[in-house]
Amino acid sequence: MPLYRRHLPCRFFTGLVVFFHFFLFLLLAGQAISQTAETPVSSAIDSLKLTDHTPLPPGSISAEDVPDDAGGAIDIIWEVSPDDVPNGKVRSYHIFRSVSLNGMPSEFTKIGEINAGSTTFRDGRAAEDVDNFYKVAAVNFENSNGTLLWEAMSSPALVGPVHATSQWFNTRRVNAFVGVVLLSAIIIFLINQAKSGKNLYIRKIAGLEAVDEAVGRATEMGKKILFIPGIQDMNDVQTIAGIAILGHVAELAAEYEAKLEVPVSKSLVMVTARETMKEAYARAGRSDAFHESQVVFITEDQFGYAAAVEGQIVREKPATIFYQGAFFAESLLLAEVGNAEGAIQIAGTGEPSQLPFFVAACDYTLIGEELFAASAYMSHEPRQLGSLKGQDVGKAVFLVAIVVGIVCATFGWIDLSHFFRVN
Amino acid sequence: MRREIPLIITTIAGLVFAISYFIPHMPFGEAETIFGDWVTIVQAFAIWLGVLNLLRVTGEKIHRKRPGWTYAAIVIVTMVGTIAIGIYEGFAGMNATPPSSYRDAGTTFDWIFQYLYDPLSSTMFAMLAFYISSAAYRAFRARNLEATMLLIAAFFMMGGRVPLLDQLISPFTDTLVFSKLSSWIMNFPVAGGQRAIAIGIALGIMSSSLRVILGIERSHIGGGE
Amino acid sequence: MMGHYIALSLLAVLGLGMIFIFYLTVKGRTIERRFVFLYIVFTVSLPLFVKMKPPIQVSPEVQQVVETITSLSPGAKVLISCDFDPPSAPELQPMLVAFTKYALKHDLKLIFMGLWPLGPSQANRGLRLALADTIIAAKNLTYGVDYVNLGFQSGNEFVIQAMGGSFKSMFPQDDRRIPYDSIPLLNGVVNYRQIDLVMNFSAGKPGTIEWIQNAVDRYQVKLSAGNTAVQAPQVYPYLRAGQVRGLMGGMSGAAEFELALNEKGKASSFILSQMFSHLAVMLFVIVGNVAWLMTRKKK
Lengths: 423, 225, 299
Prior knowledge:
The structure holds three protein chains of three kinds.
Chain A: H1 3-38, H2 40-51, E1 59-65, E2 74-79, E3 92-100, E4 109-115, E5 120-123, E6 131-144, E7 147-153, E8 157-162, H3 174-195, H4 206-221, E9 225-228, H5 237-256, E10 260-264, H6 267-283, E11 295-297, H7 302-316, E12 320-324, H8 330-340, E13 344-349, H9 355-361, E14 364-367, H10 369-379, H11 382-410
Parallel strand pairs in A: 9-10, 9-12, 10-11, 12-13, 13-14
Antiparallel strand pairs in A: 1-2, 2-5, 3-4, 3-6, 6-7, 6-8
Helix pairs in contact in A: 3-11, 4-5, 5-6, 5-10, 7-8, 10-11
Chain B: H1 4-20, H2 28-63, H3 69-95, H4 108-138, H5 145-160, H6 163-169, H7 178-214
Helix pairs in contact in B: 1-2, 1-7, 2-3, 5-7
Chain C: H1 2-26, H2 33-45, H3 60-70, E1 77-83, H4 89-105, E2 109-114, H5 119-131, H6 134-137, E3 147-152, H7 157-163, H8 167-170, E4 197-202, H9 208-219, E5 223-227, H10 232-240, E6 247-249, H11 250-261, H12 266-298
Parallel strand pairs in C: 1-2, 1-4, 2-3, 4-5, 5-6
């Protein structure tokens, strides 16, 4: 056998080994280069660790379920890191969460960050019925023109497991609950008393006593009655109260055969007002006299509505104008124009800022609660009267509480206001 | 059933809102949010209901040539025109790069807002100044004790908004200047009175709401028994 | 300066005119309302030509707003609810402009919204004026990074409540139809907990009181407010209870705010007109009552 043939396998394998080592060397060198290129920050951090920019971790970390909520929220509380001082190493805190079903934390994901100086963070998306673990790390960083140059994070403090649970009662609102139950009980008790035939006294309200006279005046003069139910929608209780009054006024107008028009500012109010008037005319036995065009939607815009109604007042010169509902800046515009045209005006609103204008420009004004009492007052319906008395009893309760509270506060006894604070 | 169904819906909705204020647990906490979303949707649709009704009423006025029908025509033209411009510029802005709003400066919608709507509505509001002066001259009279107290308080309140008066009075007294008096009136009598009115109105609202929930008050569904 | 002296002279003539009105009223010849309107026209317009620095002093309520704002650090997020429309703009727009200018100069991040349909348009107008300021223009601020306008949402107080859970549920897109999640400024802003302050400029309902009842009481939001002069008294009980941090009332509140922030604007320019018109109304009340008392005595 020739020599080269005997040595061929050795040379081949030697060459293979050399080539393999050379290839390995290239691979490792390339990796080293790419690592250096890709992670300048981490190598910078490594070098920075030598210069100690890493802050100390926060202390005494705890986590607790947020009480009185629908679940899914956990508060994480900690003491600031000793390095969390003005111009210190702490710029922010990063919060991490891990969810587990077996009581052991797994991979953590960052759920938020908060400025230095903070000691609490609320995780509003905690999963219920699982173990939640949290880590809080103090973080130091530097950035320039929005680019992060470096970041140093403390070893994170761990807490857990903690569960997010929902509660069946919001204990911070116990006082409101007691108040609502008490007042509702009083109102319902008095409604039942009224239904049983007990006579309930209500003082005279001049504005409501004058409704009959006002409608009669319009009939005698052969002029219109204008009813303006405010500029808010049906979700406002003042509008509901106004529509209730409209029902009584419409019934009177139907009986006296007076023309009644209702320009409105909201489409839902238009629909409700039409229904109310139709019912009222039917009660008076004058269903044929009602026409849908008596209730007209003008515009939702406050001053567009005011301009349209003012124009109607100036052109048509109604004998009687009712303003019953929620009013704002347009109240004086309407009332002054009505006054200038010589109409008898009866106003009622729960907006305190508009009451002075109505008082100045109208003949009668229902102030605040008198508007809500109007429906009960005009109908003399026992259940409505009973609820009115309930309101008054509620006011008496508050009056006593205010007086007692003032006395206690003056002499430095118990702080009664604490019991009335609602969260 | 025409009356019963709305009453049942009113009672359920009212109770759900009242209960969800105290019970955060599912489904009550969620129910408040869901109902609140429905209110938002219904209110948005209600705007269209009003627009359609306005179109119907003004259209009928034009068709029957009732007095003032030309103004009704102006209402329709301006309403339809503004809606069309808003929709067109809204879509155009949505597809532009970068996206813009139909309200942004330079749009026709913004021009209508700035040069038509703004002056018109500001003018209407400005009329209040004239009506207040006329009411002040004609109607604000000290007819009785309460009216006299009201006028005195109003005098100091308005004086507090005129710093020139403070400059006239301050050489003589530092305590009784209008601005300090008006601040005192706002912080004590006014705040106290506003609290009382707010409590009374809140009780009135609670009582009315209870009547609505219990079905005693039926004006929101057209009244009747 | 000639206009200044002519205006002052005419105002003096108006003052003398009030004496004449008093004389006529005592004689039983009350002047027609059209003359009252004319009187007011001159009382409001003549001071615009008077070159006088109004002697404004910052009230404690406005100072509280200023202290709340100046305590915010750069980068703090402020939610601004513009709950007003053009009729109330003379009182509220100057407050909005002064605040926006201050905020943008001090690197606060602004999130505008509106519970009134035209509120976002008012916000845009305020922004335009603020961005035209030379100092702010030099900062080259970017929409979506430094400020954003979420637009209008119907629902009144329900919107405020729902935002306590999630802003995105009420504003899935901003006013330019950009998705909520695509806006850098709103990255990480889920609800009120990520907001440092809520500024509310309100002319009625829904407004400051709804924000107090639904946001402050329920979600412990920090709130400062500017209201129209008519609305402001209703907010005083909440101010005294500490539920709102400061209150600016009407154009005088706006002028005080501009003075405190050193951002002279329209309120400072027009406050003289307001002063003279207030004076005129006070004189009408006095004249009317004195004349009425004198005629009553005669009878």
